Give the backbone structure.
Amino acid sequence: MLVALIARDKKDALQTRLDNRAAHLAYIEQTDVVSQAGPLLGDDDAMIGSLVILDVADLAAARDWAANDPYAKAGLFKSVDLIPWKKVIG
């Protein structure tokens, strides 16, 4: 099942994002369930959140992945939405 993880960073949390970026990217590689991912950008092209498309067995697996993401453990996000997603194009 594909799940879109849409996370919004806390205000003024860019340094938290930068400090944990290497661990986050390593986690993505190690878990092998991410089909697409990238930062959400603000008006000034600064990173303000994340969009991650997970390919997992169910929503419970998506919740577990999200909870163990180094960004989440560092307290980067003010909100995280997990939404089942259907790929139509691409």
